[in-house]
C-alpha cells in the first residue's frame, strides 16, 4: 500500500475517533475547565467542586445550551487534532523504521526490517504531538474561552466566530497561542501515553484477522492514559489559566505567576484542580477514541486493498 493511502487511513480513523469521543465527554470537559480556573483560596472559602459546577449549569437560563457550550471548537480541535496526530505519528514511525533498517548486504540479501521500541513509539508521538499542538492551539484557546465563561457574562464569547473575532480585535494573533509553552508538557504526556500503549499492544492476544480484542484495547488505553495523567496533570490548570480571558489580571503573569497564584490558593493540591472530572472524562473518552480507531483502521485498510486489487489488470 502506498504511503499516501496509509496516512489517509490513519487520518480518517483519527478524525472519526476524535469526533465521537467529543460527543461523549464534552459535558465533563466544561466541568473540568471551570474547576481549573476557580480562584477560591482553600483557607478562606470553600473551593469549587464538580457538583457545584453541575448545579451552576442546571440553574442557568438554558441548561442544555450551557452544558454543550463550546462544543463546536471542541469537535473541530479533537477531530482535526487526532487526524493529524495519528497520520504524523505513523509517518514518523515509518521514517524511524527506515532509518533503523540496514540496507542490502554485499551479497544482495535484504536485511530484516527493524522493529520499534517503546522509546521509538514515544519519539514518534512527541514529533506528532509538537506538530499537532502548533496546528490546534488556536482552537483550544477558543474552546477554553467559551467553556470557562457563560454567554450572558461575556457576550463577545457567545459563539465560536464571535470568540475568534473578539480575541483577534482586542488581543491580536498572539492570543491564539497563549499557553503554547506549557502545552508542550502535553506533548510529553502524549509521548508517555503512546510509549506505554504501543508497547502493551505488542503483547496483545491478537485475533486471527490480526485485530486486538476490544477488552484489551480498553485496558491498554485506560492504563496508558492513567499513567500519563498521574505523571503530568499539574500542567493542565496552569495552561487553562493562561488561555482564559484577561488571564494576566485574573491569574498572574506567565507560567511562574500562575503557579505562584495556584500555590497561594491551596498549595500542591491546587495544581490538581479539576483532576477528578478530568479522569472521569478522559478515561472513557480515551477508550472510545482507541476502540473506534482500532476498529476502523483495519476496516479501511481492507477497503483500500480491495479497491487497489480491482484496479490491477487480470493476470493471464
| Helix percent band | over 70%
The outline comes out as globular
In the CATH hierarchy, the architecture is: Alpha/alpha barrel
Q: Structural class of the helices, strands and pairings?
A: mainly alpha
N-to-C order of helices and strands:
HHHHHHHHHHHH
What CATH calls the topology is Mitochondrial carrier fold
Beta-strand residue fraction: under 5%
**How many individual helices?**
12
By CATH, the superfamily comes out as Mitochondrial carrier domain
- The radius of gyration over CA amounts to 22 Å
DSSP strand tally: 0
Our measurement of the CA-to-CA distance between the termini, rounded to an integer number of angstroms, reads 23 Å
Keywords: Membrane, Mitochondrion, Mitochondrion inner membrane, Repeat, Transmembrane, Transmembrane helix, Transport
Pfam families: Mito_carr (PF00153)
Membrane topology: Multi-pass membrane protein
Main location: membrane
Describe the 3D structure.
The chain has 316 residues and is mainly α. It has one domain (3-98, 113-308): Mitochondrial carrier fold (Alpha/alpha barrel), CATH 1.50.40.10. It has twelve helices and no strands. It has helices spanning 3-36, 50-59, 63-67, 71-100, 118-147, 160-171, 180-202, 214-232, 235-243, 247-251, 254-266, 275-311. Helix 5 crosses helix 6 and helix 9 (235-243) crosses helix 11. The radius of gyration is 22 Å and the shape is globular.
Write the layout of secondary structure elements.
Blueprint lengths: L2 H34 L13 H10 L3 H5 L3 H30 L17 H30 L12 H12 L8 H23 L11 H19 L2 H9 L3 H5 L2 H13 L8 H37 L5
Helix pairs in contact: 1-4, 1-12, 4-5, 5-6, 5-7, 7-8, 7-9, 8-12, 9-11
